[in-house]
Structure formats: structure tokens, C-alpha cells
Design goal:
The complex is a heterotrimer of chains A (290), B (317) and C (365).
Chain A: H1 8-42, H2 46-49, H3 64-70, H4 75-111, H5 117-126, H6 132-146, H7 152-176, H8 181-188, H9 193-204, H10 206-222, H11 225-230, H12 239-249, H13 254-288
Chain B: H1 11-25, H2 27-54, E1 57-58, E2 69-70, H3 74-81, H4 83-113, H5 121-133, H6 136-146, H7 153-160, H8 177-201, H9 206-214, H10 219-230, H11 232-247, H12 251-256, H13 268-278, H14 282-307
Antiparallel strand pairs in B: 1-2
Chain C: E1 4-13, E2 16-26, E3 31-35, H1 42-50, E4 57-62, E5 65-66, E6 77-80, H2 92-102, H3 107-120, H4 136-148, E7 154-158, H5 166-183, E8 186-191, H6 194-200, E9 203-208, E10 211-216, H7 218-223, H8 228-233, E11 240-249, E12 252-256, E13 262-264, H9 267-274, E14 280-285, E15 290-293, E16 301-310, E17 315-321, E18 324-330, E19 341-346, E20 352-355
Parallel strand pairs in C: 3-8, 3-9, 6-7, 7-8
Antiparallel strand pairs in C: 1-2, 1-4, 4-5, 9-10, 11-12, 11-14, 12-13, 14-20, 15-19, 16-17, 16-19, 17-18
Helix pairs in contact in C: 2-3, 2-4
The chains are: A mainly alpha (290), B mainly alpha (317), C alpha+beta (365).
Chain lengths: 290, 317, 365
């Protein structure tokens, strides 16, 4: 079926299409150019980076900055690799814990009808409203009181709570879309309520769990303000703080800084690109579909 | 498991007597949410209480709590009487509103352009998402380098193309620092809006779009009358999440300028951080936090309404 | 197999009774259909029997055992759901094996039982597939199979056919009926489709508004509906119900229509009408018990054809009487046209009379 009566819309559609393409092209440049410049700078020598006008393309590309960062025998490399490991440990632990805590909570909010259910759910959502700074001083005191200053435990505990609200919200949307007859069937088939959850519903919510995990991991990996406040010992620093520490000492080593920024971004970008379809699916099926 | 009835008349009358009995019947259900609640209580309820308490005291820089002195509302009076407070407040609102608006519009544009399938779409989408995923610290350093007043690439480009005699100051000038930081922030945030809205676009029923086409609607009209109304829910959620994130954002400003020059780029969070951990005036910082908290809570009403929309009942009301 | 006894079941949501004092006895090996419009409480009743919903008051016995506080898994029941509720991540084989695994049966016995059930339902070739790769009818069969492997005391079926298309529904209807005959199983079957209920079940439990209206064999429910709701719900096309006024003409009991005609009553029917609480009486007649003629006949009521619907082997004629539509079936060779005058003769032995105020069927004694 066509609306053949009007020749004009054809031209309008073309106009829109070209406008769309132009817009996309601009956005691609806006997104890519800063990252390209980061990469180009990272393969320059420290001297070449500080030239005016800049070398648009490095005259003598070098991987020296990367070698330095990844060389465990040099002091810079030793620090960098340790920061990297610290970040990995903290992020992984808080991700695992937040999944363990968020999954049953989201399931209960989706399925059960206990008094206070709505109140608790909205309190959880409301958490996201609190600015981090509100927590900073008291948590600083709390961590000092618990003897957790300068430990990764302080960060894991904090990141856990900060990822929870969105994780619970995302997962609840996911559970809302699984027909409750599946649990009924499982319970009649001989499963207890918890078994029905564990054996039938959990496996079905794997995409949602993956999405939640990505979100928690990226949040923890990139977190700055609490790590900046809670951790002072050099051997416990996470990447964002560590990088800041050792580049504030030599503020002109821009190739080193760009290489470190690149290395810091690689794990989360790779992780996200590998698993992004789960994330998009969780959003489509859970959060967005009202 | 109990199936919730769709229509429950007379529930309100039945409630007061039975709430504890019902809670007892459902006691096993609480086990599922208990871990989440406990963690939240430790790391959220306690700090909120503590911040409010601290805001009424003068606490020594050493943060020795036994030496604190009760000062009533003095801390609040000091804050509201200072010029910096009003400047920072203005900065915060500009920062939040402009960042949120731009990120939403750019995200919407990208979502719309990427909705129809074409070769290379997946790659483009993946690339556009990257700024959101990479560490904010990394992003801040990249842009700090790009804005560098002597060797920054934008300045150099402007000089090379003849737009400027010498590289302009972006983040070292009182006038341009806030817009420059907002650009960075939008760069980091528009992909989030894009993902949310792209997900929302998938729920727009094809039949409606076809009906609009048959009814003679052009691209603009079918967007405005069909697609956009369908995105209402997602848009509200996205804008609220962005606004809250911007209100609470710290890293970009802190790393790139530390709030300077001359407080021109300070927003509440960075300012409070500096008062607390820079000048160790804990009481003032706490009072600031409480004020901020009250403002955010008034926004929170809409936030809960927006995110909890599916639940209809609205626990905040 | 076992019998099931429901005693005074009540389920309250807030202040509202979804199931209101329902009592039923289902004998061993019987196929009972809970039938009624949506929201009548039939699915809630089934969930109460399954233990998926908690009882407000009353007693449920399966076999001789009181199961009020027994977990669903220990009630020795199996259930088939409207949306099949197959576990999407499991293969057909794993779906069938799941209830047996939950009962910790040895692996070789599970294998044997699954294969046996698959063979019985003719789906051995589907065992390795996932539910989403199956057609609606095949999914339905898997759901039946999953109930079957358990060898439960009672089968519960919640609208198992309503997600299927019309043709498949007829076919599955006979399969389930065959299944019941072969297994001599006790089945409680929920449906809103009265045709399904009438064709399959040994007994109908007609429900409305949370109340059990009538519980009897399909033939008896059809022949002697206890009230106007049951009369209009069971049978297709629905029984015509005409509101009339009882009066006497020359000392004989008659029913008067709004158009001014009167219908003389047989002595038995006259006695029934005398028992009505007011002069308002509703006449019920099924399409096949009304004789239509195109010319005046003594005792017949004059009317006008309203619409004529030929279906091939029978033609349905609708006429208006006292503001109600009356449905009459005639052989296809009877030529009737819309707006043509017709005469309707009611069969005194097969007409139903209801009290216009209480809506209950009127009895002679």
C-alpha cells in the first residue's frame, strides 16, 4: 500500500535521512576524536608531545610509555600493575557480592506480597538520590571505627551499596516479565519455593544478572571519590587514584598519562562490548517496558 | 506464593489490625530482602543520621568526635551568608540542567538515527557507547590534555586554521571553564541516554507507525505524534537518572580544575569535598550536605514517581 | 487416583470473597469441569486445591488426607497451565524429568518414565527440543506429559486449551478425553468455554461470582438448570429467556407478553407458576424446543422474524418477544425472511420457568 498521492514527502524523507546521516557523522567525530588523540599522544615521546604546533601524526611513534607501564621490574610498572590488580580485585568482589544481594531482593520485590514491600522498594530506589558527599564524612568515620581505613574491604562495602539500587530495579523489571506460573508449576512438580527460585527462575534471569554485573563492575572500576578518601597507602590504591598520584608528580608526562588512561579503559570497554547485548536486553525487557 | 489480586477493594480497612499478623505470615519473604536492607542501613541510614548530627556541631580538624561543640544553626547561617554558596549553587544548576538537556537531546538523536538497520550500525553504536563506559578519570585526563592551554589540540587547531592568534584558555579562564567542563560531561553521558532511548524505541508498536504513514504523516509528524509520546516513560526515567548523576558528579570537575579558577567551576559536591577534606571544616561540610540533601529529596519525589511508575501506587505519596 | 472433597471453601482478598463457600465432592476417576465466566472464582478454586493460594477457611481433602496446610509438592497433584508454563531453558526431556528429579528418583527410572510418557503422547521425536521450538499443540502435549509422568492422584488443568487455535482445540479436546478414559484419572478442569466443559466432563460445576451455582452431570445441568444464570450459560446458542407476567384468563393460568398475547400453560407448568414469589415469571426455551410456523396455528404466539442466519444444516431465526430475543432453529428447507410474520409454539414439557425476582427455576412441588 502506498500513499502515492503526494510527491513531496519523498523529498522530505530524503532531507531527514541526510540530516540524520550528517548528525551521526558529527557525533562519531565528537566521540572518536578525543580517543584518537589519546592514542596518538600515547605513542609519542614526552618531548614530541610538548610541541607547538603539535605533531598531528607522531614523527617517531614509540611504545615506550606502554613498555614502562607494563614492565614489572621498573618502579612505575610495578606500581601500575599493582593498582591494576587492586582495581580488579575490588571490582570483582563488589560485583559478585552485589549480584548475591540484589538477586533475591529483586525477586522478592517482584513476587512476594509482604507488608512493607513497597516502602522498602522505594527506599532502595531513593538511595540513588543521595549525593555521595553526604556519605563521605560519616563513612570516613565509620570506616575508621571499623578499622577498615586503607583496606579494600571499605571500598567493596561501599561500592556494593551504591550499585544495589539500580541493580535491584533492573532485575525486578526482569522478574516481573517471567510468568509466575513457572514457579507454580515447579512447586507442584515438587520444588520448594526456594528451589523454584534457584532452579527455574535464576537460570532464566541470567541476562539480567549479567547486565547487573556489568553495571556494578564498571561502576566499581571507575569509582574515584571513595577510593580517594579511604585509601592512602600506596600499595592499596586503585587505578584511578594511583594514576592521579603518580602523574601529579610528573605533570608533563602526557604520553605516559594517556597510555595509562588507555590501559585503564581497556578492560571495561572490552567487557562492555562483549556483553552489551545483555545490557540492552535487560533495559528493553526490564526497565523500559512498562 | 500469593498471587496479588488485581483489584482489592476494602483493603485499607482490613489493614491496621492485621499488619503484624501478615508480616508474620510472610516472615520468610523478608529473608530475601534482608541482606540488601542490612547493607543499606549500615552504609546509608547511619551516614545520613551522622551527617545531620555533625551539621549542628563544630568538630576539630582532627575529627576527634569527643571534642565536638554544639553550635546550633551556626553552620547553616555561615553557609547561607557566604557569597560562594550562591555562586556554587548557580554553577550547580547550570551544570545539571545544561548537561542533562544536551545529553538527552544528543542521545535521542543518536537513538533515532541508529534505530533503522543499516550496514555498520552495530559498530557505530558500540563506538558511541565507549565514552560512557571508560573511566571518568581517564576521560577527565584526556580532555584536560585536549584543553591544555599551551599544547592542547583544540587550541592548536584553532590557531592552525586561523581562528585565533594564540591558543585560547578553556579551563583556566573564569568565563569558559564551566561550558568547557559541560562539554566533557555531555561527552561522557549522552551514550547512556542513547542506550535507554534505543531500548525504548523498540517498544514503539510498528502498527502505529504504519497507521500514521497510511494517515499521511511525514517523518516529523510520526515522530512527534507516535514515537515521542511512546518514549515519555523512558525519557522521564533517563532525564531523572541523568539529572541525579550530574547533581552528584565529582570526578570530571575535581580532576580537571579542582573547582577553580576562582570557584568558577565549583559545584556543590566538589565544594563540599574541599570544605571537608581540604579545610577540615567538618561541621560546615555536613551542613552543606544537609542542605543539598533537602534539595535533592524534593527532586526525589519526582524520581520515585518516574522510576516507580510501573508500580502506580507511588510510595512517596 | 483419589477422590477430592472440598468443604465450605472461602477465599477472601481484602473484604471481597473470590471463592464463597464452595463445597464439592469429586469421586475417584471423575472428570469434573469448573466452568463459568472470567472472574467467577474457578481458577482461584483450582489454586486452592493445588495449594498455590492459601485458604481463608474451609477444608480440602485429597484421598482421605486433609491437605489444608500441605505444601503443593506434597499434595500428590499435577497441574497443566493455560500458558503451559514449560521451563524455557530446559529441553522437553528435562521438562518431563524435572518433577521426577525433585522426587529424587533413580536416574534409570526417570529415563524409563519419561520415555514411557513421551511414547504415550506420541512425542518421542521432540524430546531434545526446547519449548520455543515447538508448536502450540506440541507444547500443550509436553505440559500434559509433565503432569503424566508424575502419576499423581489428581490432575488439575487450568484452561489448558484456550491458547490454541480453534481447530487444534477440537483435536486436543478429544486427546484429553481419551487420556482420561485410558488413565481413569481424577481430573479437575477449569474452563470458561461451556462447550469444552459439556463435551469433556463427567460433571459440571458451574460457578458465578465466587459461588457454586450447580453441580451435576452435563445432561442434567442442560435439562434442569437451577437458575437463569446456569440456563443462559450452558448450551449454545444460549437458551432464550423471555420476561413475562403471570395472570389468569377464564380461570386458567397463562403468561402474558408485553405485546398483549397470552400463552396458556399445562397443569404442571401452571403449578410451577403459582409458586413464583411475584407475578414476574421468565420463560426459558432452547432453540430446538420452539416450533416455528409461517401461518397461524392454535396456541402459537404471533411474532416477526428479526434476523435469519442459515448455517448450512440448520437455520437460526431470531424474533423479538417481550423485549427479549428468542432463538429458534428450523430445517434449512423452511423459507423464512426477515420481517416476515411467524408463529411460535413452545413445547410445554421442555420449557423452563424461572421466578423473575429470585431468578431460580420454579418447581412444581
Amino acid at each position: 500500500m502506498t500513499v502515492a498521492s503526494k510527491p513531496a514527502p519523498r523529498a522530505t524523507i530524503d532531507l531527514w535521512r541526510w540530516a540524520g546521516r550528517a548528525f551521526l557523522a558529527v557525533m562519531m567525530l565528537f566521540t572518536l576524536l578525543p580517543m584518537v588523540w589519546m592514542l596518538l599522544t600515547s605513542i609519542k615521546s614526552g618531548f614530541a608531545a610538548l610541541q607547538f604546533p603539535p605533531q598531528w601524526w607522531p614523527n617517531e611513534p614509540t611504545l615506550a610509555s606502554y613498555k614502562k607501564l607494563l614492565d614489572p621490574t621498573s618502579s612505575v610498572g610495578e606500581d601500575f600493575l599493582r593498582f591494576f590488580w587492586n582495581s580488579l580485585f575490588v571490582s570483582t568482589m563488589s560485583t559478585i557480592l552485589s549480584v548475591i544481594v540484589a538477586v533475591p531482593a529483586a525477586y522478592a520485590f517482584s513476587r512476594f506480597d509482604f507488608p512493607g514491600r513497597k516502602f522498602l522498594f522505594f527506599s532502595v530506589l531513593l538511595r540513588n538520590m543521595f549525593p555521595a558527599v553526604v556519605f563521605l564524612v560519616p563513612l570516613f568515620i565509620l570506616m575508621r571505627f571499623l578499622g577498615l581505613m586503607n583496606t579494600h574491604g571499605s571500598l567493596i562495602l561501599t561500592y556494593l551499596t551504591f550499585g544495589l539500587p539500580l541493580a535491584i530495579w533492573l532485575l525486578k523489571g526482569f522478574y516481573d516479565n517471567i510468568p509466575y506460573q513457572l514457579e507454580q508449576a515447579a512447586r507442584i512438580d515438587g520444588a520448594s519455593r526456594f528451589q523454584a527460585f534457584l532452579l527455574i527462575i535464576m537460570p532464566l534471569s541470567v541476562p539480567g544478572i549479567i547486565a547487573t554485573a556489568i553495571y556494578s563492575f564498571i561502576g566499581a572500576w571507575n569509582e574515584y571519590i571513595f577510593a580517594y578518601t579511604f585509601i592512602n597507602r600506596n600499595d592499596r590504591l586503585t587505578l584511578p587514584i594511583g594514576i592521579q598520584r603518580f602523574f601529579s608528580e610528573s605533570s608533563s608526562d602526557f604520553p605516559g598519562l594517556m597510555a595509562a588512561s588507555f590501559m585503564m579503559s581497556v578492560p571495561v570497554v572490552v567487557l562492555f562490548l562483549m556483553l552489551q547485548r545483555y545490557f540492552v536486553r535487560a533495559l528493553t525487557e526490564g526497565a523500559v517496558k512498562h | 506464593m500469593t498471587i496479588r489480586p488485581t483489584e482489592v477493594p476494602a483493603r485499607a480497612t482490613a489493614r491496621p489490625a492485621g499488619v503484624f499478623r501478615r508480616a508474620w505470615i510472610h516472615r520468610a519473604d523478608y529473608l530475601y530482602v534482608l541482606p540488601a536492607i542490612v547493607v543499606m542501613l549500615i552504609v546509608i541510614a547511619y551516614p545520613v543520621y551522622y551527617t545531620i548530627e555533625l551539621s549542628f556541631y563544630n568538630t576539630p580538624p582532627s575529627l576527634q568526635l569527643r571534642d565536638k561543640i554544639f553550635v546550633g544553626f551556626d553552620n547553616y547561617a555561615i553557609i547561607l551568608g557566604s557569597d560562594v554558596f550562591w555562586q556554587v549553587t548557580l554553577n550547580t544548576f547550570i551544570w545539571t540542567i545544561v548537561s542533562t538537556g544536551c545529553a538527552y537531546i544528543l542521545g535521542l538523536g543518536c537513538a533515532l538515527c541508529l534505530h533503522r538497520a543499516f550496514p555498520g550500525r552495530a559498530v557505530m553504536r558500540a563506538i558511541l557507547i565507549i565514552p560512557w563506559v571508560i573511566s571518568a578519570v581517564a576521560a577527565a585526563y584526556i580532555w584536560k590534555w585536549i584543553y591544555h592551554s599551551n599544547f592542547g589540540v583544540i587550541g592548536a587547531l584553532l590557531v592552525e586554521l586561523g581562528f585565533a592568534g594564540r591558543p585560547p584558555n578553556f579551563i583556566d579562564s573564569v568565563n569558559s571553564v564551566l561550558p568547557s567542563l559541560i562539554v566533557v560531561n555531555v561527552w561522557r553521558e549522552f551514550p547512556f541516554a542513547m542506550i535507554m532511548l534505543a531500548a525504548g524505541l523498540q517498544t514503539v508498536p510498528d502498527q502505529l507507525l504504519r497507521a500514521a504513514k497510511v494517515d499521511g504523516a511525514g517523518a516529523w509528524h510520526s515522530f512527534w505524534h507516535v514515537t515521542f509520546p511512546h518514549l515519555r516513560g523512558v525519557s522521564i526515567a533517563t532525564i531523572l537518572l541523568l539529572a541525579v548523576a550530574n547533581f552528584n558528579s565529582f570526578i570530571v570537575t575535581w580532576i580537571m580544575t579542582g573547582g577553580g579558577p576562582a570557584n568558577a567551576s565549583h559545584i556543590w559536591i566538589t565544594h563540599i569535598y574541599e570544605i571537608a577534606f581540604g579545610r577540615q571544616r567538618w561541621g560546615i561540610a555536613a551542613a552543606y550536605s544537609v542542605i543539598l540533601f533537602l534539595i535533592v529529596m524534593s527532586l526525589g519525589y519526582f524520581y520515585v514517581r518516574g522510576l516507580g511508575g510501573a508500580e502506580k501506587e507511588g510510595g512517596a505519596s | 487416583m483419589a477422590h477430592v472433597v472440598l468443604k465450605n471453601l472461602i477465599k477472601t482478598y481484602g473484604g471481597y470473597n473470590a471463592v464463597n463457600d464452595v463445597s464439592l465432592t469429586i469421586n475417584d476417576g471423575e472428570f469434573v469441569a469448573l466452568v463459568g465466566p472470567s472472574g467467577c472464582g474457578k481458577t482461584t478454586t483450582l489454586n486452592l486445591v493445588a495449594g498455590l493460594t492459601s485458604l481463608t477457611s474451609g477444608e480440602i481433602l485429597i484421598g482421605e488426607r486433609l491437605v489444608n496446610d500441605v505444601d503443593p509438592k506434597n499434595r500428590d497433584i499435577a497441574m497443566v497451565f493455560q500458558n503451559y508454563a514449560l521451563y524455557p531453558q530446559k529441553t522437553v526431556y528435562a521438562n518431563l524429568a524435572f518433577p521426577l528429579q525433585m522426587r529424587k528418583l533413580p536416574r534409570d527410572e526417570i529415563d524409563r518414565k519419561v520415555k514411557q510418557a513421551a511414547q504415550m503422547l506420541d512425542m518421542t521425536h521432540l524430546l531434545e527440543r526446547k519449548p520455543r521450538e515447538l508448536s502450540g499443540g506440541q507444547q500443550q502435549r509436553v505440559a500434559l506429559g509433565r503432569a503424566l509422568v508424575r502419576d499423581p492422584a489428581v490432575f488439575l488443568m487450568d484452561e489448558p486449551l484456550s491458547n490454541l487455535d480453534a481447530k487444534l482445540r477440537v483435536q486436543m479436546r478429544s486427546e484429553i478425553k481419551r487420556f482420561h478414559q485410558d488413565l481413569k484419572a481424577t481430573i479437575i478442569y477449569v474452563t470458561h468455554d461451556q462447550l469444552e466443559a459439556v463435551t469433556m466432563a463427567d460433571k459440571l460445576a458451574v460457578m458465578s461470582g465466587g459461588n457454586l451455582q450447580q453441580y451435576d452431570s452435563p445432561a442434567k445441568v442442560f435439562a434442569n438448570p437451577v437458575n437463569m444464570f446456569v440456563a443462559s450459560f450452558i448450551g449454545s446458542p444460549a437458551m432464550s429467556l423471555v420476561p413475562l407476567t403471570a395472570s389468569t384468563v377464564d380461570g386458567r393460568a397463562v403468561l402474558a407478553g408485553a405485546e398483549g398475547w397470552t400463552l396458556a400453560l399445562s397443569p404442571l407448568n401452571a403449578r410451577k407458576v403459582q409458586r413464583a414469589t411475584s407475578s414476574k415469571v421468565v420463560l426459558g426455551a432452547r432453540h430446538s424446543t420452539i416450533k416455528l410456523t409461517t401461518s397461524a396455528v392454535p396456541g402459537a404466539i404471533p411474532a416477526k422474524a428479526y434476523t435469519v442466519e442459515p448455517t448450512g444444516d440448520v437455520t437460526f431465526v431470531q424474533a423479538m418477544l417481550s423485549g427479549a430475543i428468542v432463538n429458534i432453529s428450523v430445517p434449512p428447507d423452511v423459507a423464512v425472511e426477515a420481517d416476515q410474520p411467524i408463529w411460535l409454539a413452545f413445547d410445554q414439557d421442555r420449557m423452563h420457568l424461572f421466578d423473575g425476582a429470585t431468578e431460580l427455576a420454579l418447581k412444581a412441588d
